[in-house]
Amino acid sequence: MDHARAAITNLFSGEPTSYTRFSIARQTDGDNSHVEMNLAADEEEGGEIGKPEHLHASMPPPRRNGKNLCLIIMAAVVLLLIGFLIGYLSYRGRMQRVNRCLDGSGNCEMTPTASYYSDDGMEEEVLGPRILYWPELRNMLSTKLATPCFETSMRQREGKNSVEAGKTEDEHTASYIHDQFTRFRLDDVWNDEHYVRLQDKGSSKNQVFIVENGQEELESPDAYVAYSKNGTVTGKPIYVNYGRQEDFQQIRNMGVSMNGAIIIFRAGKITLAEKVANAKKEGAVGALMFLDFSKNKKADSYVPFGHAHLGTGDPFTPGFPSFNHTQFPPVESSGLPHIPVQTISREAAARLFGKMDGDPCLLDWIGIMGCKVTVNKNMTVKLTVNNVMVDRKILNIFGVIKGFEEPDRYVVLGAQRDSWGPGAAKAGVGTAILLELARVISDMVKNDDYKPRRSIIFASWSGGEYGAVGATEWLEGYSTTLHAKAFTYINLDTAVLGSKDVKISASPLLYSLLETVMKRVKDPAKDSQNLYSRVGSDWIKRVVPLDMDNAAYPFLAYSGIPVVSFGFYDEGDEYSFLGTTEDTLANLKEKTDKLYLLMRTVTEVAGQVALRLTHDHELFLDFDRYSEELLSFQEQLLPFEPSVKALGLTLNWLYFARGDFQRAAHALRGDIANSDRENRIVRRALNDRMMKVEYDFLSPYLSPKDVPFRHIFFGKGSHTLKSLLENLKQLKANDSRVDLKEVKEQLALATWTIKGAANALVGDIWNTDNDI
């Protein structure tokens, strides 16, 4: 370019009157493509501007004929082409160096530069703002994670007998987390207060008696079940395995009446609240639960805590946020059990089975050797519950790293803080991971020029032991806006309960992103392999449905926000101390000697998911997955077509709605492919359409106060696709208990919910398909 400039200058016999400086200026919207041109005019000390000083003023201008002028223009064009080629080759060389950086084959900073000529004629380089590409960002996260930080956080809970919601230890832990968020220099840190009604154990212990020719105390445990009904009940004991619906069906098949009985079941498979609800439905007057069989004999004498509310949040403000102005409306959740419930130890359960002489346990029901299903002799169980209701203030602690382009769109990472016991696994692991993610990502933003497009919120919840109370109350408080702003919730609770197996619960929208991440994160057991090698290509078939005790559940089923919950456990050999007073750091380390390494792996998975969702132009939400889920549902419906036709109905309209959704998803994918990624307005509109997919599967025909979990895939109630399938199975079996009116309503609601989701996915009303 120097030679070209000199040639042109000599050709026109004059000095250039100005030069141009190029600088790449960082734009506030993150776009580096803008080139600013500043023209600086040279100040001439003598003569007219632009006129050569060595020419005499009276010299006549040189005569040029048309031929000379054409030659001059052609020469200028040639020289300009030569200059362009030189500049292009230089630019291509710089881009190849950048590409080598992206491939990992070169060691460079990937920093864009601009060059210009200084006053002395020397070429200079101006460093532009550093751009962090995804591979470098991913590696930076992994490098910055520090194992000692996990240990420091975990030791904060040592020596604490409990961190019960709303009590002193919980407030101290909340203050510690608030201080840590502040020390990490998050953009904003704040508290969210809720006034909730909880149930605590009374001054008198709850008691369980065996009544047989007198009264013999079985156990008076320190642990209790929150939201149990108070009072004393007596009934014959009946053992019902895990307390699932199929387990109760087995008892019915044996011809045993459960009316007026005290049902006994072991922990696991489903939540305690679901077990109690099933028992109440069968006419039981009380319920007892013991820890499932374990290889760890130390746990035989321990009694777990729990809650019996079939729901999440404060059961005395259903559908309302528990702010101080709510003042506890005169309603209560329909999920309260209304029967006394208590937990007992495995030792107490073994003593109870030893007194029973009825039918022996089925082979697959044996949790304790020698267990019996029923009792034939004159023996009953007496249960007394003395719990008390208390009003408490709980705190949710938040910190945020604000996005540089769309601060009003955010991913939320959350962990439960409270626990009835020390809570090393229940709350300590998740809290430690939350703090480490806040520290590392904030450091990347403050010190390494990472500028996330969207915001990242870190949340520490209280009231988790009572059924995700803190998280649910926050969702209820901001229900009108969160679904339009929060595009993913990442749950960090109970992330390490073992080391052999991987447990994944997630929205289908996040399957593709999770798979991509697992292919890039090393397996802590085998450094030469990644996590994807462990879970296998068919891992989606083993995704575990979220239970209501998981804080991610209300985000998905109540607010329609995609969620993911990821962690390690040992299938068939669960961590025995979860939810007991012995959930200590020592016991957790005894369960796995790779505790901190496993925590680091979970942190890396959660961090990559959060960063990828806030880094890319396009949200990494795979809405096509729901087309596959709907197709799978349609295949399950096919065997029931004759039964439905016999009612004078058809499944075709439901099939058409599924097809509409598939076409709408295809159309959106086309819109994304054909859009201008650099157009922020268009990109935001497309991302908003993707964000609404999960929300649009919340049934719009139900009241969130009466039926809070409205999601047709993951919710609870007769509106769900699962409930429709169950009714169709009973209809095919000619079960007289089937409510035909309910079946017709279910078909209509399912059809129009799916059709509505398809219409919303299309975007503009004039593009919708109005065939239905």
UniProtKB/TrEMBL annotation:
<dbReference type="GO" id="GO:0031623">
    <property type="term" value="P:receptor internalization"/>
</dbReference>
<keyword id="KW-0735">Signal-anchor</keyword>
<dbReference type="GO" id="GO:0009897">
    <property type="term" value="C:external side of plasma membrane"/>
</dbReference>
<keyword id="KW-0254">Endocytosis</keyword>
<dbReference type="GO" id="GO:0042470">
    <property type="term" value="C:melanosome"/>
</dbReference>
<protein>
    <recommendedName>
        <fullName>Transferrin receptor protein 1</fullName>
    </recommendedName>
</protein>
<dbReference type="GO" id="GO:0033572">
    <property type="term" value="P:transferrin transport"/>
</dbReference>
<dbReference type="InterPro" id="IPR039373">
    <property type="entry name" value="Peptidase_M28B"/>
</dbReference>
<comment type="similarity">
    <text>Belongs to the peptidase M28 family. M28B subfamily.</text>
</comment>
<dbReference type="Pfam" id="PF04389">
    <property type="entry name" value="Peptidase_M28"/>
</dbReference>
<dbReference type="Pfam" id="PF02225">
    <property type="entry name" value="PA"/>
</dbReference>
<dbReference type="InterPro" id="IPR046450">
    <property type="entry name" value="PA_dom_sf"/>
</dbReference>
<dbReference type="InterPro" id="IPR007365">
    <property type="entry name" value="TFR-like_dimer_dom"/>
</dbReference>
<dbReference type="InterPro" id="IPR003137">
    <property type="entry name" value="PA_domain"/>
</dbReference>
<keyword id="KW-1015">Disulfide bond</keyword>
<dbReference type="Pfam" id="PF04253">
    <property type="entry name" value="TFR_dimer"/>
</dbReference>
<feature type="domain" description="Peptidase M28">
    <location>
        <begin position="396"/>
        <end position="592"/>
    </location>
</feature>
<dbReference type="InterPro" id="IPR037324">
    <property type="entry name" value="TfR1/2_PA"/>
</dbReference>
<keyword id="KW-0812">Transmembrane</keyword>
<feature type="transmembrane region" description="Helical">
    <location>
        <begin position="69"/>
        <end position="91"/>
    </location>
</feature>
<keyword id="KW-0564">Palmitate</keyword>
<keyword id="KW-1133">Transmembrane helix</keyword>
<feature type="domain" description="Transferrin receptor-like dimerisation">
    <location>
        <begin position="650"/>
        <end position="761"/>
    </location>
</feature>
<feature type="domain" description="PA">
    <location>
        <begin position="235"/>
        <end position="312"/>
    </location>
</feature>
<keyword id="KW-0675">Receptor</keyword>
<dbReference type="InterPro" id="IPR007484">
    <property type="entry name" value="Peptidase_M28"/>
</dbReference>
<keyword id="KW-0597">Phosphoprotein</keyword>
<keyword id="KW-1003">Cell membrane</keyword>
<dbReference type="GO" id="GO:0006879">
    <property type="term" value="P:intracellular iron ion homeostasis"/>
</dbReference>
<keyword id="KW-0449">Lipoprotein</keyword>
<dbReference type="InterPro" id="IPR036757">
    <property type="entry name" value="TFR-like_dimer_dom_sf"/>
</dbReference>
<comment type="subunit">
    <text>Homodimer; disulfide-linked.</text>
</comment>
<keyword id="KW-0472">Membrane</keyword>
<comment type="function">
    <text>Cellular uptake of iron occurs via receptor-mediated endocytosis of ligand-occupied transferrin receptor into specialized endosomes. Endosomal acidification leads to iron release. The apotransferrin-receptor complex is then recycled to the cell surface with a return to neutral pH and the concomitant loss of affinity of apotransferrin for its receptor. Transferrin receptor is necessary for development of erythrocytes and the nervous system. Acts as a lipid sensor that regulates mitochondrial fusion by regulating activation of the JNK pathway.</text>
</comment>
<keyword id="KW-0325">Glycoprotein</keyword>
<dbReference type="GO" id="GO:0004998">
    <property type="term" value="F:transferrin receptor activity"/>
</dbReference>
